[in-house]
Amino acid sequence: MKRFIGLICLIGLAACAKPPFKDEFESDKPWVEQLTQLPAYPNDKNLVAFDAGAATSNRYLVDTTSIKVGGDGVIRFTLMVKSPAGATNVSYEGIRCATDERKLYALGRNDRTWTQPRVSEWQKISLVRQYYAQRELAKNIFCPHRQIVSNQEAAIEALRAGIHRDIYR
Question: Pick from 158, 148, 166, 165: which is nearest to 48 by CA?
């Protein structure tokens, strides 16, 4: 009988126990993306180049004044890609570090204004082979270990410092 009462006490304690540790930190709230305001068109004096890997001969640059670290876990920035032939593409993008996704918010035009892209949805960076720059920025500069940098200054510092490729590959 004592064993039976002891068992009932244990069952009662288990029912009253706190939920598992992880539940204290995980939220059931759905993720909400913050509204995004487009930055000024990039100025050459604010561009910082970074190495996107040997798979491409393009030059990749980020406008440091456009970098915004959002409370929604998204880092937004202006990316400029220059081909060896002289063609230039400008885009305003965001990387969601926790999910390894990117979103295109705007495309730059020749008259130094922004235009809305046809598709502006979150896409897995790993699923599109041509996302060399976004993969490098996410993995080694803005989101090491899928953790977003703390603020704009930390993002600029990481961008300027770069990462020695052999450490992480």
Answer: 158
Domains in the chain, number: 1
> CA 104, CA 81: separation in Å to the nearest integer?
14
- Kindly report the backbone phi and psi dihedral angles of residue 105, in degrees, each rounded to the nearest multiple of 5, phi listed first: -95, -40
CATH number of the domain encompassing residue 54: 2.40.128
Is the backbone of residue 73 left (phi > 0), alpha (psi -120 to 50) or beta? left
Residues with Cβ within 8 Å of 95's Cβ and at least 6 positions away in sequence, in order, are: 74, 75, 101, 102, 125, 134, 137, 138, 142, 143
Residue among 129, 150, 128, 147 at smallest CA distance from 138:
147
Structural domain range at position 79? 44-164
The phi-psi region of residue 116 (left if phi > 0; otherwise alpha if psi is between -120 and 50; otherwise beta) is: beta
* pTM for the whole structure: 0.77
Q: How far apart are CA 33 and CA 20, in angstroms?
A: 28
Q: pLDDT for 29-61, tens place per residue?
A: 788 999 999 999 999 999 999 988 877 889 999
Angle at 57 between CA 132 and CA 91, to 5 degrees: 50
